[in-house]
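Reviewer 2 asked us to include a model.

Predict the structure of this chain.
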Amino acid sequence: SDLQKIAYHDALTGLPNRALLADRLLRALAHAQRWQREVAVIFIDLDRFKLVNDSLGHAAGDALLQEVARRLRAALREDDTVARVGGDEFQVVLDEIDGPSAAAHVAEKLMRVLGTPFVIDGQELHVTASLGLSLYPRDGASSDLLLKYADTALYEAKAEGRNAYRFFSPEMNAQAHGRLRLENDLRRAIGRGELELYYQPQLDLASGAVCAVEALLRWK
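Predicted model (structure tokens):
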């Protein structure tokens, strides 16, 4: 019905929305569990989309998102789901995927189709994307965990310098937790006066003269 379409689809692109994707993911996981199959979740975030919006306006931004949606849909199999879940954020569920290498193959394909220039209002736009992937059952058994881990992996891909894809792995999770702990400890370090400033001279080897000074912050 029309009401169902409105409730479960994104108005701009016609793609499924977050609610429908969550429903499809649950179904894919139930199926995978029964038949001992694998499922992949991919988070896609367009790099520097804000730049397009700010420089060319919202109409051009919307046209770009519609074209991105079309390309993603065309690049995936009939049984896969691609949803628009935020401004320039998309999520994909790959049903019955054949392990990490098959998922990586899809990620590369998606990056390739988005990497081909877009022509919007006669303007050629170059857009890249960052992708984060998680796999069932390797990374987790629940849809909540898989979505959370794909998000973590996306954060990694962005930190790597964008236009990249990253898998979620237990090592990556440990790194993420470690970084979080470090950030929290550092915030507290300032309040506790644990940071000390040192100045270190830099010498010109030829003349022996001090040519610069380096400021070092030491954490006790």
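The longest strand covers residues 210-219. Residues 170-191 form the longest helix (22 residues). We have added this to the supplementary material.
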